[in-house]
């Protein structure tokens, strides 16, 4: 059971997220679209080797950890993730400004992802606002 202090703490965090999200003019992803996206990314975890993300609250780039055994209701829910990221802790979908699928996985071994295959996977889910270049594919989740 949560104490009043912890409830106030979580309410404050939620207010801060809402304040940061309000800087964007348009959310591009609903929670149900997020769930469809994550389910498809988990199904194709063998083909999608690295996913980076940026939170609306900070400039730090994190990495999502989605494996073939990532489960709805255990690792992610209808509104976010628990512990499936390099920044740690909860990550709600509305906190994510964009996902980035880099072409190069590591700089040491020059391992690469197949961006055409990733784009086909994304297009099989629905319409997304994508920015593509030689570095990778950026899936915009909210627009300024």
Please tell me about this protein's structure.
The chain is of the alpha+beta class and 144 residues long. The protein has one domain (4-143). It is built from three helices and nine strands. The longest helix is centred in the first third of the chain and has 18 residues, at 4-21. It is globular.
Helix- and strand-based class?
Answer: alpha+beta
State the domain count.
1
> What's the overall average pLDDT, rounded?
81
Give the SSE string: HEHEEEEEHEEE
Supply the number of helical segments.
Answer: 3
How widely separated are the two ends? 38 Å
Q: Detail the poorly predicted runs.
A: none
Key attributes of the depicted protein:
single chain; 144 residues; alpha+beta; five-stranded antiparallel beta sheet; two-stranded antiparallel sheet; 9 strands; 29% helix; 25% strand
């Amino acid at each position: 059971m949560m104490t009043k202090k912890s409830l106030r703490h979580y309410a404050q965090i939620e207010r801060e997220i809402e304040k940061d999200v309000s800087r964007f003019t348009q959310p591009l992803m609903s929670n149900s679209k997020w769930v469809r996206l994550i389910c498809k990314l988990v199904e194709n975890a063998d083909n999608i080797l690295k996913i980076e993300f940026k939170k609306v609250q900070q400039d730090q780039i994190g990495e999502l950890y989605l494996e073939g055994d990532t489960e709805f209701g255990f690792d992610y829910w209808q509104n976010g993730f628990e512990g499936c990221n390099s920044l740690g802790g909860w990550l709600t979908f509305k906190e994510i400004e964009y996902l980035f699928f880099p072409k190069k996985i590591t700089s040491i071994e020059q391992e690469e992802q197949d961006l055409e295959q990733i784009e086909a996977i994304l297009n099989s889910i629905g319409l997304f606002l994508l920015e593509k270049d030689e570095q990778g594919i950026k899936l915009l989740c909210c627009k300024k």
